[in-house]
Write a structure and sequence with these properties.
This protein is an all-beta fold and 192 residues long. The chain is 3% helix and 40% strand.
C-alpha cells in the first residue's frame, strides 16, 4: 500500500499499523528548510514487521528537523529504481537536521530501527544535537556510509555547529559502501 504522511502540527503522532510494506513515493518528514517542528512520533509494529520502502529517486526517505522526534519499530528500505540506482549522496535513508537558525538543536530518540539498501548514507545527522539517542538500530547495506555525523558542511548550513552529545546503545552499522560511522572534520567536504 502506498502511504502519504500528513504532519499536522506540534506533537503529531503517527502509528504505522501495517504488518508488511508501505511505499513512499516522495520524501517524508521535515527538513532544515521548513518551519521547526516539535514532537514528531512515528511508530511501527516492529522493525521486522513494518517496512517503509522508499521508491523515489531524489531526496531522503524520512526526515526530522526538531527536538522531540521519536521513531521506533520499523524498517526504512528502498525499492524499485531507487534500490538499483548508483551511489547518490542526496538519497539518504534517515535525515536529521534542525532548522538552519542560530541556537536550534535536536534531541531525539531512535529505537529499534533498520535502515537498509539506500543509495546514499543510511543515517545522516547534521548540525547541533543536545542528546540524540540511537538504541537497537541496524544500518546495513547502504551505498554510502552507515551513519554520518556532520556539523553542517554537507548541507551548507549557515549556522553550522558541532553535533554535541550523541548516544549509541547496541547499534550495528555493517556492510555499507563507506565507513560504518563517520564524524566529519568541518573542513572536509566529503565527511570522511
Amino acid at each position: 500500500a502506498a502511504i502519504a504522511v500528513v504532519i499536522a502540527g506540534r506533537g503529531t503522532e503517527i502509528l504505522i499499523n501495517i504488518n508488511g510494506t508501505a511505499y513512499l513515493d516522495s520524501p517524508v518528514g521535515l527538513t532544515k528548510n521548513e518551519n521547526e517542528f516539535y514532537g514528531l512520533k512515528i511508530t511501527g509494529l516492529g522493525r521486522f514487521r513494518t517496512t517503509l520502502q522508499a521508491r523515489h529517486l531524489s531526496g531522503h526517505a524520512l526526515a526530522a528537523n526538531r527536538t522531540g522526534a521519536h521513531f521506533s519499530d520499523f524498517t526504512i528500505d528502498s525499492g524499485g529504481a531507487r534500490s538499483s540506482s548508483n551511489y547518490d549522496a542526496a538519497q539518504v535513508g534517515l535525515l536529521l537536521e534542525a532548522p538552519d537558525i542560530a541556537g536550534k538543536a535536536m534531541a531525539d530518540c531512535f529505537v529499534d530501527l533498520r535502515i537498509l539498501n539506500q543509495p546514499g548514507d543510511g543515517i545522516r545527522q547534521i548540525g547541533p544535537a543536545q542528546n540524540n539517542n540511537y538504541s537497537q538500530c541496524i544500518v546495513q547495506n547502504n551505498k554510502g556510509h552507515g551513519i554520518v555525523i556532520d556539523r553542517g558542511t554537507l548541507s551548507d548550513r549557515v549556522f553550522a555547529a558541532d553535533p554535541g552529545i550523541v548516544n549509541f546503545d547496541t547499534v550495528w552499522s555493517i556492510g555499507n559502501g563507506g565507513h560504518g560511522l563517520v564524524a566529519g572534520n568541518p573542513a572536509d567536504a566529503d565527511a570522511n
